[in-house]
Design a protein that fits this description.
With 163 residues, the chain is an alpha/beta fold. Helix content is 41%, strand content 17%. The chain has one domain: HUPs (Rossmann fold, 3-Layer(aba) Sandwich).
Length: 163
């Protein structure tokens, strides 16, 4: 069966609620992670590959442009939400991408109720948004070690020095 086109992997939350219900009914384990994914780099790719190995279906919550600006400040994101969503959707490890406007993915996690919640190890266990929802369901929260030298903010700073 051919792989779905990247644009077909980008879905609104309401569509993904049904996808998750059907996956759960078939006994499939749903994994969720989220982030800005501005300047997609090897650290992101490794996290997403690891996340995908934790289950059968990986959904990525992507901060919207407005959300990224609120979190990271003016000048961010570097790439638009459309471009960032397409880049993520092109990755083999990613099954679906959904864009959210809020500062945190709490609403997404409450609606999707994933079996596994994946975050980078830069997040302390008690800080991971939605971890309570996942644990109440009997799911797991997994922290992935960061790849040394990979940080979008650090990469932007390096590029400014070169420019």
């Amino acid at each position: 069966m051919p792989a779905p086109a990247a644009r077909d992997k980008i879905k609104p939350l309401r569509a993904l609620v049904g996808v998750v219900r059907r996956a759960n009914a078939r006994g499939r384990r749903v994994v969720f992670t989220n982030g800005c994914f501005d300047l997609l780099h090897a650290g992101h790719v490794k996290l997403l590959e690891h996340a995908r190995r934790q289950g059968d279906l990986l959904i990525v919550g992507l901060n919207s442009d407005r959300s990224v600006r609120a979190l990271k400040g003016p000048g961010r994101p570097v790439f638009s939400q459309r471009d960032r969503a397409l880049l993520l959707a092109e990755l083999q490890s990613v099954d679906y991408v959904t864009i959210f406007n809020e500062r945190t993915p709490q609403r997404l996690i409450e609606r999707l109720r994933p079996d596994v919640l994946m975050k980078g190890a830069d997040w302390r266990s008690g800080q991971i948004v939605g971890s309570d929802v996942v644990r109440r369901k009997g799911g797991r929260v997994v922290r992935f070690p960061l790849l040394k030298g990979y940080s979008t903010t650090a990469l932007i700073q390096r590029m400014k020095k070169v420019a």
